[in-house]
Every structure is written in structure tokens, then in C-alpha cells.
Amino acid sequence: MKNKTYYLKPTMTLPTVTSLLDPHKPALAPGCAQDRAIRQSVDVIAPAAPLAPNAIARAVAQRPISGTLPARQPLPTPVLYPDKPTLKLGLDVHLEFIMAVAQRDHAAPQAPRKFTPEQLVFQVQKWFAEGLGVYAVAESCGFGFVLQRRLVEAGAQSFLITPIALNGKRKTDKLDARALCVRLSRWVDGNRDELAPIRIASEAEQRARETTRSRKFLCQEIRRLANRGHGQVGEYCHQKLPHRWWGPRTWKKLSATLPAWVVGVLEKLRKIILLIEAQVEGLVAELTLRVAGQARPKGLGKLSLVTLEAEICDWKRFYNRKQVGSYTGCCPGEHSSGGKRQVGCIDRMGNGRVRALLVEAVWRFLKWQPGWKAARKMKVKLAAGTAMKKKTVIALARQLAVDLWRWRTGRNTMAELGWVAA
């Protein structure tokens, strides 16, 4: 008896397998032993039939989850009402007035109109009472989210976007408002590439963020006043003041050596500096209390951690590591066409405060976290030279933001990232 070997492929079905048999022999009888063996082999290697949508949903729901991940926080999107006529508003916001361009449904945009903030809110209330679905968009600016919240309370769906170039080299309030209105119309209709709405921070998040920014501002004021004192002594006495010249011990020595009128000028600066330092100490005590008792990696101080938390607002806002990296502004710029690819400096399109904190933290991590996995992968570049080391630090700053996001959302532990707890 001569045995034959058949090589079965995952894409084979029962007819293709039976066609491989000797064509001169009679077909296998259904239900015989050889037929049953072939059917069992095909069932083992054949791909499963595609599941119905409901079956897929049940399978995903029944699949065990290794760890509990935070719920996603989607970016603002418009809510459509097919039974309502729509009104889109493009707003160019200023402190004294607002230039608005309106578009009803898919008609041509109307002529620009100038409103005060109170007039605009009242007009939106009137449109909403008439049964219109009102959508409004404006560029994010230094006026915060006050107008946006008032428009939402009036019944509109209000969105903020990052500032963008709307009309090339031609820029007027009317042209900007019209361009925003046209983009909003296309965005509401489904073209999500027209606008990139930003996340609106809550009032509690804004207050928490303001505390860290106030501390930074006051520290800069102290440095500015101290430099003023250094400049005055250098100009009138041709001397160099010591560091922290306003301290009690140093000031006692300076009062006995400098001219009386120079001491009087410095005394005024010293009083202001001492008052500001008292405020800074109070803010530092308040900030460190937020993270008291929390685990943190070695090399990331309490003030750095609480400042990052305040600027990020909520780590759960990010879906993936790409969004985290983009928020830092440490992604390389690129200018590529055809077969040429040119990578330039970082785009700096994210949060500048977060970027500065991350770069400072990376230098500390390189000293206090020798087991950091991200840094160990780049040890060759870190030892290549000063210029390459600085570029590598920027890349590690982006990676540090991703690692912090993984740690704060429970995706990884500090041990899995190669960190040592402080």
C-alpha cells in the first residue's frame, strides 16, 4: 500500500481538498471514515466564518481585560438635529467687540455684523428660541473660555480651535469671520479636516493651573527685580552683588559697605522682593500639598509633577501616545516631496510650559534613573557628542511625556518603565 501526503493550506475548503485525490478513483462516499477524516482536518485549519456585527460585539464584551483602562474623552463634536434648520456662526473675537458672519443651512454666508459680547449672547438666545440649531466657532485667544461658556448657556454649540492662517497674506476681521463660518459649515457637514476643536478646561482645572502659573510669574518677577539691583550697583559702584543679595545676612554686610543712597534704592527693591517671596512660599506649600503622599519617580520633584498635572488637566484626555507626543510640541518638523524627505527642528506646536518642564526632567532622569528603558535605547546617541545629545534629550522629552501618560493612566507601572521611586 502506498501512502500519499497532502499539504493542506489555511485557505483550502472541502471541495479543493477532495479535488487533490486521484481522479481515476471513485469519489468518496459521504460519511465514510476517510471522508470524515478529511472534513475534520479541514475544520481544524480552515478560517472561521465572519461573525455578524452583534456576535462581534458580544465577543469583545466577553473578552477578558488584563487591566482597567480609563474611559476615553472624545474631543468636541457637533450634535446634528435633522429636523431643525441650522445657523453657523464664524466669530472673530476681540475684547471690545465680536465680528460675526452667519450662514443659514447651506445658503451663502451673510454680511459681517459687529456685536458686543452681551448683544451676541442675546441674539443667540433669540435664534435658539426660534428653533434654530446654532453652531459657533472662534479661535482660541487670551480671553479664556468665558464667551464660549456663555454661548453654550444661551443654547449654542460653541467650539474653540487653535489659531490658524485663514486668508494667507490678507487678514481683516471680516475675512477671518467669513473663513471661520465657511470652515464650520463644512465641518458640521462631516469634513472633520476643516477644524480641529480643542478641549475646554473646566473652571476647577483652570484655577488649579492658575496657581502653578502664578508661582512661575512671581519667580520671574523676583529675578527681574534682583537683576535691577545688580545693574544699579554695577553702574554706580562698579561692584558685583552676591547671589540673593536681599537675604538677611548678605544685606547686613551690604548696608555697611555700599553708599547710603544706593542702599536706599536697593532697600525699596528688597521690600518688594521679600513680599513676593512670601507669596511664593504660600503657593509652594499649597502645590506640594496636592501630591503629598503620592508615589513619584526619582528625579521628578513635587513642583514639577504638580505643574505637569495642572497643565495637562487630565491624562485621560489622550487616546494614544501620538496624541501625547503632539501635545508636547517635540515632534520633528518635516518637508518631504517625491522621493526626498527632510526632517527639521521640532514644530513647537504644543504646550510650551509642558515642553520646558519635560526637558528639565529628562536631564534629571539621565542622572537619577539609570534604568530608564527609553534612555537605555538611546545610549549610543547620548554619548555621540554635545549636539546629538541635545537632540536626543528633546526626543526623550517626548518619550517621557508618553511614559508619564502610561504611568498616570495605569497602563504601566514605574518598574515596567525602568523607574525607581523617590
Describe the structure.
The chain is an alpha/beta fold and 422 residues long. The protein has 16 helices and seven strands. It has a five-stranded mixed β-sheet. Strands 6-7 form a two-stranded antiparallel ribbon. The protein is globular.
Features of this protein?
two-stranded antiparallel ribbon, Nucleotidyltransferase, domain 5, 422 residues, alpha/beta, five-stranded mixed β-sheet
| Molecular shape | globular
Quaternary state, please? single chain
Kindly state the mean pLDDT as a whole number? 87
Structural class: alpha/beta
Question: What is the correct CATH architecture of the largest domain?
Answer: 2-Layer Sandwich
Contiguous uncertain segments of 5+ residues: 44-48, 53-66
Q: Helix proportion of residues, in percent? A: 40-55%
Total beta strands: 7
Q: Write down the secondary-structure element order.
A: HHHEEEHEHEHHHHHHEEHHHHH
User: What is the CATH C level class of the largest domain, in words?
Assistant: Alpha Beta
Q: Walk across the major sheet and give the strand order.
A: 3-2-1-4-5
CATH homologous superfamily of the largest domain?
A: Ribonuclease H-like superfamily/Ribonuclease H
The total domain count is: 4
According to CATH, what is the topology of the largest domain? Nucleotidyltransferase, domain 5
Largest sheet: 5 strands, mixed
Which percent range describes the beta-strand content?
A: 5-15%
Euclidean distance between termini CA atoms: 75 Å
Radius of gyration: 32 Å
Number of helices: 16
